[in-house]
Amino acid sequence: MNSTPDLIVALDFDSADAARRLVDTLEPGSCRLKVGKALFTRAGPTLVEGWVRDGWDVFLDLKFHDIPNTVAGACRAAADLGVWMVNVHALGGPAMLAAARAAIDEGGAHRPLLTAVTVLTSHDQASLDAVGLQGTPAEAVTRLTGLAVAAGLDGVVCSGQEAARVRAQTGEAFRRVTPGVRPRGSAADDQRRILTPTDAMRAGATDLVVGRPITNAADPARAVESIANEMAVTMQAAADR
Ligand SMILES: O=C(O)c1cc(=O)[nH]c(=O)n1[C@@H]1O[C@H](COP(=O)(O)O)[C@@H](O)[C@H]1O
């Protein structure tokens, strides 16, 4: 198990106000924030820059996937916002990944972590077959992780189900960011490759991304606390072993 797996709260709220209401109850350092396409399209860079100024680590999850030149420009813009992590789709291919890497490395003073989404956690075998990707989801994750490693990225986004495999392929330092995390008893929603926080940590996830189990909870702040507690208990149990 990684020594400090971190909780990333996916702020997939319909409004900036709803997101702010939750973030105002949390402390930077206790978790990280993820701003994805829905909230960013509503609230834009100003919201992100405000949280960065307040000391938050923000994962800007816009999953860039375009021609290399366009993705390079988008990565430069993300770095200029001061975010902690930015991601692209590994499916964009080697040239796109290299352009993203170069854009971040040649950028200004701030250099966010750059990760690549492998196979979305909403994909199962049938939907992977439908888009024409060969092999099982795990095999596709391995292949796409190979592209991310070759381009010098800092990690991949994969499901907890592939975290151990990615660690074996890449070594400990390469990040394994895992969405599709569901506390026991939570609805899977549209996620297909899921694990509980405890199982994702045991599998070697370095960062756990959790959205709806928090944002749809009657008390989102309490839901964050409960997941953080589960993670702390799992860490302690691993340390005691
Ligand atoms: O890159 C991501 O963060 C991501 C990749 C992936 O394969 N699956 C995935 O669910 N995500 C994001 O992780 C979050 C998961 O949210 P919940 O399913 O609500 O916990 C969403 O914001 C997704 O956009």
From TrEMBL:
Report the GO terms under cellular component: cytosol
- What reaction is this protein's catalytic activity? orotidine 5'-phosphate + H(+) = UMP + CO2
Taxonomically, the superkingdom here is Bacteria
Extract the SUPFAM superfamilies matched here: Ribulose-phoshate binding barrel
The entry's active site is 61, 63, 66
Looking up Gene3D superfamilies in the UniProt record yields: Aldolase class I (3.20.20.70)
Q: Per UniProt, where does substrate bind? A: 12, 34, 61-70, 121, 182, 191, 211-212
Extract the GO molecular function terms from the UniProt entry. orotidine-5'-phosphate decarboxylase activity
Domain Orotidine 5'-phosphate decarboxylase intervals: 6-227
Q: Name one GO biological process term.
A: 'de novo' UMP biosynthetic process
Record InterPro entries: Aldolase_TIM, OMPdecase, OMPdecase_AS, OMPdecase_bac, OMPdeCOase_dom, RibuloseP-bd_barrel
Q: In which pathway does it act?
A: Pyrimidine metabolism; UMP biosynthesis via de novo pathway; UMP from orotate: step 2/2
Q: What's the family?
A: Belongs to the OMP decarboxylase family. Type 1 subfamily.
Quaternary structure annotation from Swiss-Prot or TrEMBL: Homodimer.
Name under which the protein is recorded: Orotidine 5'-phosphate decarboxylase
Q: Which organism is it from?
A: Spiribacter vilamensis
